[in-house]
Structure formats: C-alpha cells, structure tokens
Design brief:
558 residues, alpha/beta
Length: 558
C-alpha cells in the first residue's frame, strides 16, 4: 500500500488540511487502474462506499452509554446518505434507521427493516408519509398541532375506526384497534445556551393538547423527541432535562410508560482532520486575509494567479488569496473537533441537569431509554467521491482552473466549503496527454455559473495535472454526497457503488437482525418500486464493487 504522504503529495491546500483516510481509502487511491476503471464503468463523479467503519462508530457511543448504565438506541439518519447499502449496513450492525420522506420510508420497509427499528422524523409529513408510517407501525414523531390533526384523520382512514372526540374519554371496546406509536417533538425553551428551533411545540402546548383530549385514542405517546442546531453537549443535556420533565408529566397522565424514551436527534460531532495545528494554521491565514481585505470581506483582494507563499513562509498575509477571489468563509462545519462521539456523549451524560443529578443518572432513575439519530458521525470513514479531470484552463485574469466532470452540489452541505484536501490520483498521462507544470489553482465544475467552485480554497499541484487524472474527495459519505445534489442541466446524478465485503462485519447498538431481515435486505428494495428505472445498464460491475440499488430509482414522482 502506498504510504499516506505519497498519496497526498500531488495535491495540497494552501495551507494544507490533510484528510483522515481509512485503510480501504488508501488501498483504492494507491490503485490508479481501479480508480480509472470505476469512472469508465460508472461515470464521473462516482460515490464509492465501504461501511466497515459504521459499527465501530456506533460502538464508540454504545460503550460510553453501557459504562454509564444508560440504555442507548441509535437510529442512523437516512438523509445523511441515500444508499440502500447504508440501510443494510445499519441493520447488520443492529442499528435503527431514521427516515425523512415517503420514499426513504418505503425503501426501508421494502428492505425488511422491522417497524421498531424505524423512526419517521420528516420535517413535513404529507398524507402519504403519515399513511405509510401508520400502516407499517413505524414510530411517528409528531411535530406540531396541525400534524396531530392530520395524523388522527389518516389513522381513522387506516383503521376504519373513528378517534375519540376532544374532551370526551375514549370508549375502549374489546375490538378497538391498537393505537399507533408516536413521539412528541419538544421545542426546548430558548436561552443563551439553546437557540430557537423551528421544530416541535413547547411542553405546555403538548400537555394542553393531551388534557383536552386532542390526541385522540388512536395515537399512543411512547416518548419525547427534540432537534437542536449545533454540537454543544451541554445544550443537549439541558434540553434532555426539559424532555425528562415532559416525560414525568406524560406518565402522570398514563402515557410514556414502559419503554419510554427521549430522542436527542443528531448533531453528534466527528472530525475529518487529525491535525489540530493544521486547522488552527488555516484559520489564522484565513483571518489575516480577511483583515487585509478590509470591510467587504475580500472584495478588494488581488489575485494575479501567481503561486501563494508556502504555509510557513511568514509575512503579514499570503502572496495570493487562499480562497476564491479572497472571499471569506462565513459558515463552515467544524472539520476538526477534539471531542467527538464517545467523549462527547460522556460529557452529555455527566452534566448535571439539576443540582446533584447528572443526565445519565436521571435517565437511569426513570428507566428511560436514550435515543439518537446521528448521520455524519456514523458515516465517518464510509465513503469518498471520485471525479475525472476534463480540462486545465484559467480565468481571464490568469487564475488557474482545473475542470472536473462533476458539479458543486455533488460535494456540498450547508457549509460554505468542504475544508478537506483532495487526493490527486495520477491516471491521465499518456503519449497524447501531457502533464502540466506545477501550479496553484482552483477546482471548478460543470454548471454554467461563474462561481461554480468544487472547493473554494486554492490548491497546490506540485507535480502538475493531466487530463484524465482522478480527483478524490475523501470522507464524503455523510451529507456531502447527497444532501444537496442536483441534476440541473439534465446532467445525471452521481452513481453509487459499494466495495464488496465492506461493512459486512457484525456491529453494536441493539439486537442483531433476524435471518429473514438479513436475507431480504441483501436485495435491492428499489427494484420493486414503481420508481425503478427500466432497462438499467447490464454491463458487469468492476471486480470488487457492486452498484447500489438506489441508482435505479428516478428522482421524480411516479
């Protein structure tokens, strides 16, 4: 296997932000022929997956919970990665799945995941979502009063039984339908620690609804859910304390009894970078650039296309902007974090939510299960994106550009930029295609937009670039591949493949799936969907890789 420094030497940020690479990533990137074959067979860009890190990531949480005597249940956020391979890997690891749409739910049900392993948290729940959630008896998280009314109406349609009228006790007949499991989404009280949220209702609102009979008799509250922006474990612990108060009030009303839970949602941090010093150096250089640019955040920054000074060259500012046109990055994910997964959960459970009582103790005393819905931190190490170099050109003012066969939505989240250095795999040079001289420049994509930047940071290519080379964007499986991907210009979405054998190991975080489920989930659930693509490419897969069934699903309404 090629050593990491050799893999990284052909492309670095200015200053560098070196990605943490899983062994399987190093193995693939050290094999230029296979990288080329993958793009030749499946097109560019291509999302390559190996889910072997998923059980390990989950174990970091479950081990801390077990040591604290807390019952933890993990539901992997499907929105973080759309592949059916992720669903199968989560189920092999004994984890549940959190879904956010009718199609996500239908695919999980078709894959054979049992309803107790599914939670439906969609921000907007039209009737088809509610109907499928109720019919499958998956856990439905109720967000607001209108959603309660819609759920009651759909529940009556599904069962054929009228729900009890508000203000009148339910008339429980012996043949009354079993109520559907739901959770109430709590909007914690805003404070200096807890930001306002668009999700959920206050505890008071929920209790007033229940006391007035507004929940009806077809919906049964089993737990409380909340969603917070950010990654602060103390904010989560504070909101958890408020959620437990709501659990206490629900129990006084005969709800949330055995099997009660509080679900803290996602936002469990991970780190893309191992080197804290690199992260600090980048931001020091970024902030010096912003200060030198003055008000306007970089509008006056010059860019003459000349190579930037080396990261350790000193001086008051880089010789050339380290971002596109010197524009500052205003909202970015913290790509380096010191406290992640297990240690993060340890801080949450150890925080006192009232004098003398830590969060973990409060959960234990009540016999309440802790649930969470991580996405990014579970997908850490599970995928990367490959793209082919199509051209080398420059802007009219001389800024060097490398054109990739992909667009910016195919490696993008809500963060302004992906602050992780790509890997350049040298596959393009032959008798007719020559490698360029060394240079520094930017990666650009296929959309007809001036600022169509794959990454907004200046990159150094000390060995030059050839048409046909492969650019690898490491560790993109969580959100970056799929959350904002677009088929604008009618350019196809990226294909998705999984390494054969990746993620097949046993895991943690709950009961192992039954043999029936394991067998059913090994097939492509999407093939049975009305949205499946007919006449899919029949060419054989590249040895060692299988195409994911999600690529057979059209992103349109049937």
């Amino acid at each position: 296997m090629t050593e990491e420094p050799t893999l990284r030497e052909a492309c670095q940020g200015t200053p560098p932000l070196s990605a943490r690479l899983e062994p399987w990533m190093q193995e693939l990137l050290a094999d230029p022929a296979t990288c080329s074959s993958l793009l030749e067979r499946y097109g560019s860009p291509l999302n390559v997956h190996d889910f072997s890190a998923l059980p390990r990531n989950a174990a970091e949480l479950t081990e801390v919970a077990e040591a604290s005597g807390v019952d933890l249940r993990i539901f992997v956020a499907r929105k973080a990665n759309k592949t059916l391979g992720m669903v199968r890997a989560a189920h092999r690891a004994g984890l549940g799945v959190d879904v956010g749409s009718e199609r996500e739910l239908a695919q999980v049900v078709e894959a054979g995941v049992p309803p107790h392993d599914v939670v439906v948290t969609a921000a907007i729940k039209p009737d088809p979502v509610l109907r499928l959630a109720l019919k499958s008896r998956s856990l439905l998280v109720l967000d607001n009063l209108d959603e309660v009314a819609a759920s009651r109406r759909v529940a009556e349609q599904v069962t054929g039984a009228p729900s009890a009228e508000p203000g009148r006790p339910a008339d429980w007949a012996s043949d009354a339908p079993e109520p559907f499991p739901v959770a109430l989404r709590l909007a914690p009280r805003p404070s200096d620690l807890i930001p306002p949220t668009r999700f959920g209702e206050s505890a008071r609102t929920w209790l007033e609804l229940i006391d007035s009979g507004g929940l009806g008799d077809l919906l049964k509250v089993d737990g409380v859910h909340f969603h917070l922006h950010g990654y602060d474990p103390i904010a989560r612990a504070t909101a958890l304390g408020e959620a437990l108060e709501l659990i206490d009030a629900l129990r006084e009303r005969g709800l949330a009894q055995d099997g009660a839970f509080v679900d803290i949602g996602g936002g469990i941090p991970m780190s893309y970078l191992d080197d804290a010093e690199q992260w600090d150096t980048f931001w020091h250089a970024h902030d010096r650039q912003a200060s030198a640019s003055g008000p306007g955040g970089g509008d006056r920054a010059a860019d003459d296309g000349q190579p930037a000074a080396a990261p350790d060259a000193g001086g008051d500012a880089p010789a050339a902007p380290l971002t596109w046109r010197g524009e500052p990055l205003r909202q970015v994910y913290p790509y380096h974090q010191q406290v992640i997964r297990g240690p993060w959960l340890e801080q949450l459970l150890g925080h006192e939510i009232r004098p003398g009582t830590a969060a973990g103790q409060a959960l234990r005393e009540r016999g309440v299960q802790l649930r969470c819905e991580p996405g990014r931190s579970m997908m850490d190490g599970c995928g990367m994106t490959l793209a082919r170099v199509i051209q080398r050109t420059s802007a009219s003012d001389g800024v060097p550009l490398v054109g990739l066969e992909m667009n910016r939505t195919q490696c993008r989240s809500t963060s302004d930029d992906f602050l992780v250095d790509p890997i350049l795999v040298r596959t393009g040079e032959d008798g007719s295609r020559k490698r360029s001289d060394p240079f520094e420049g930017f990666l650009v994509g296929a959309y007809c937009i001036e600022a169509e930047l794959i990454l907004r940071r200046r990159l150094a290519f000390p060995q030059g670039v050839a048409v046909g080379d492969v650019i690898a964007l490491p560790n993109t499986a969580g959100y970056l591949m799929h959350i904002l991907e677009s088929a604008s210009h009618q350019i196809p979405l990226a294909s998705n493949v999984e390494r054969v054998g990746g993620g097949a190991a046993g895991g943690s975080g709950g009961d192992r799936p039954s043999a029936e489920v394991a067998d059913r989930s090994s097939t492509d659930g999407a093939d049975r969907s009305s949205t499946a693509v007919e006449g899919s490419d029949s060419r054989p897969d590249v040895p060692g890789f299988n195409r994911d069934g999600i690529d057979r699903v059209l992103p349109i309404r049937a």
